Amino acid sequence: MIRQLRARHLPWAALLSLAVLASACANSGGGQSSGSSGAPITLGASLSLTGSLGSFGVDQRAGYQQAVADANAAGGIKIGGTAHHVKLVILNNQSDPTTAAQQVRDLVLKDGAQAVLGAGTPPITVPQALIAESLKVPYLTTNTPVGAFAAGSKTGYKYSWDMFFSEPEQASGIISAVGRFKTNHKIALFTDNEPDGVVERPLYKKAAAAAGDKVVGDFSFPVGTTDFTSFITKAKASGAQIVVGQMDPPDAVTLWKQMKSLGYAPKIGIIAKAGDFVSWVNALGNLAEGSLLEAVWLPSWNYAGTAHVEATLGKKFDNLGDLGTATAAYSVVQVMLNAFKRAGSTDAAKVNTALGSTNLTTPYGQVQFASNHTATMRFAVAQWQGTKTVPVWPAVSGTHLEFPMAGL
Amino acid sequence: MSATDLVNGFLLGGLYVLVALGLSLAFGVMRLINLAHGALVIGAAYLALWLFTEAGLGAFAALPLVVVAAVLFGYLLQRVLLTHLMMQSFLLGIVGTFGLAIIAETAFAVGFTSDPQSLPSALGTAGFTVFGVTIRAGLLLAFGLAVVLSLALHLSIRRTRAGAMLRAAAAEPRTAQLMGINVPRVFGFTLALAAGLAAVAGVLEGVTASFTPTSDQAILLTGIAVVVLGGVGNVLGTLVAGLGLGLVQAIGIGIFGGGYANLVVYLVFFIALTVRPTGLFARSSL
Q: What pLDDT is attached to residue B59?
């Protein structure tokens, strides 16, 4: 019988092996290229297209691809009188820091990337930046709060750069945003143990104290927590009418559902990072109604190129969360290619020096790097109203805000 | 730590039981450590989500269809692939299920993106208060199903002819084959049953929490902890261990805070295994 089984099923074993190989290969992403008079400039990007941070990666990919397409449509990048088209190679790091770091190495050493564009969130981008440092290749990222990025290197970065908002501004912005609503100023704070959660937790408390709010529940937990019952019952008992959090998306969806089932109905709430994308609304449906999100960017700021971004990326993303992330990514490519142009060379050291002297207006805002290799960008908060978003902070006149949150 | 925390922690254990039952059954009967079990759980949640988006079926209306699909898939998977791999070597069976889990994760991500998903259900977000204790309705249902399915499975194994065949195949497959029992078919039915139980767990998981393509890993780890604590192949032991784990987790969070929840659970796990290396309830149902 064993032999019979062996003979009958051997092809299936081979099929399984092939499928496993195919699965592994499927994660290696792809690129796009086009001909030009000069050799193409290769930009590599290791993005979190799947995994817990998949929402970031999909938006960033759209931004990177659009910016590269625009650059090529304009004839490429002129360096020393020669036009170079831009080739973009994207790999999927599956939201895994080790893979993300390794892929930076692969992009440079195997794919010939002359500069690397980063993913999002410190656990992914800091390891990427450290590999770029060791390879002496320019690396530029966004969606990484600048404090956490700067703290990622004890000796200071030489080749790695970040353009995003700062943690204190994020915390004070969120507290200011919830302050626009009439509540009892009692806050329940939910933060996970990822680096940004750890950094933001004291900053939220500091910003709340400065605003005259009181943190009556301070709950910290590991990523992957699936039962929030004890925290929710405490938050409910303390009478907190405001929920502020910094969490991974899957955990936050679970938290929100459990708040509903345990009868906890805060009047206003925001879970930074988790609630920033339309996937939040898709997963929660009506429960997400009225919750707030980090918008990263507002069209009303009206930086140069905003109309183009709205006309292109705006067709893919009709909410401020996803569109803001894509716009930031779009601007990252602009900054990087601008550095190539100003360097007048594809030499890594020259491009890196040019990056350091960037003073460029992008759709995302004015980019100028500080000595710690970060450019602090503006921060905004919006509100989910169905699958659409409206700005909350900074206040934009003519917008109608929903209060209290209808979802919970 | 409130009574609500303890009661809901205990009920959450019901979900752990549902996850672990199929895993325990597969290992107890076939000695197969099914590393794709978590993927079966999540796969069921994704199938229910697909039935909702494509056919408008609610999670519990979709549940019978999802279970049937899982049972058929489990049977075919075992008959077509896994039995063959297991016949070649014990390790090949494990590697095969590991490969299946990777394929499943990729397939889920391609089919549904890696965004967190959740099954919309009024029951999943419903709760009620009894004597000051707020109970999550979804967890209460999971608990009820865990008890009913555990007892039904235990009695089926111990009291029915099919159960006797299962036990014979588990105890000595070659002798059972010589006695006229079609062991590959019994193995097929075993994984079919395990997949069906995983499907119930998957729908409940999707209703009460959220899931992503890679959620299978954490689910598998929890399932393995319950199986080992309860004693491999011991259905009633799995029931007690799952409920106990949920309770211990709630107590751990209540005393030490959320940051130490997993530490407490696995500390208890290792202490229990040190004292009782074969699990707290070593005697198998099989």
A: 95
